[in-house]
């Protein structure tokens, strides 16, 4: 099983990023996929999730700014992040509901 995130980086406040998570080794299309983040000195927090019916859920602190979507044909889940704020700075992890995690990708929002 592998979950490989990409797309993080250093951006200015107000910028956008798109994170990707490529999955392999399990039945991706049937899995609930989530993005979870962890800021320095803080606990991990759920950002967004999407189930096999493409129904989505978002944390209040990203509603209206972030969107999660999936491409089952590519076994990939994405997180589109708009209007980024310094408080969005964190390591972003991809997670499958079976308990699989990726290695994380760093997002830093700073002027």
The DSSP helix count reads: 0
Structural class: mainly beta
Low-confidence stretches: none
What overall form do the CA principal axes indicate? Answer: globular
Binned, the helix content reads under 10%
Number of strands: 10
N to C succession of SSEs: EEEEEEEEEE
**Which range does the strand content fall in?**
over 45%
> Could you give the order of strands across the largest sheet?
2-10-9-4-5-6
State the separation between the terminal residues, measured CA to CA: 37 Å
- Rg computed from alpha carbons, rounded to a whole number of angstroms: 13 Å
The main β sheet shows up as: 6 strands, mixed
- Roughly what is the average pLDDT, rounded to an integer? 97
Structure description:
A hairpin with a 4-residue loop joins strand 7 (66-71) and strand 8. The relative contact order is 0.33. The protein has no helices and ten strands. Strands 2-10-9-4-5-6 form a six-stranded mixed sheet, with no helix packed on it. The termini are far apart. It has 111 residues and is mainly β. The protein is 0% helix and 50% strand. It has strands spanning 2-6, 9-11, 17-24, 33-38, 45-50, 56-58, 66-71, 76-81, 90-96, 105-109.
């Amino acid at each position: 099983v592998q979950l490989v995130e990409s797309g993080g980086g250093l951006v200015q406040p107000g910028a956008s990023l798109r994170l990707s998570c490529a999955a392999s080794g399990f039945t991706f299309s049937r899995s609930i996929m989530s993005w979870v983040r962890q800021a320095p000195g803080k606990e991990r927090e759920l950002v967004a999730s999407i189930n096999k019916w493409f129904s989505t859920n978002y944390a209040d602190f990203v509603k209206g700014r972030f969107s999660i979507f999936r491409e089952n044909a590519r076994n990939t889940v994405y997180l589109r992040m708009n209007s980024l704020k310094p408080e969005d700075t964190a390591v972003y992890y991809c997670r499958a509901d079976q308990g699989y995690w990726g290695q994380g990708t760093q997002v830093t929002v700073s002027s």
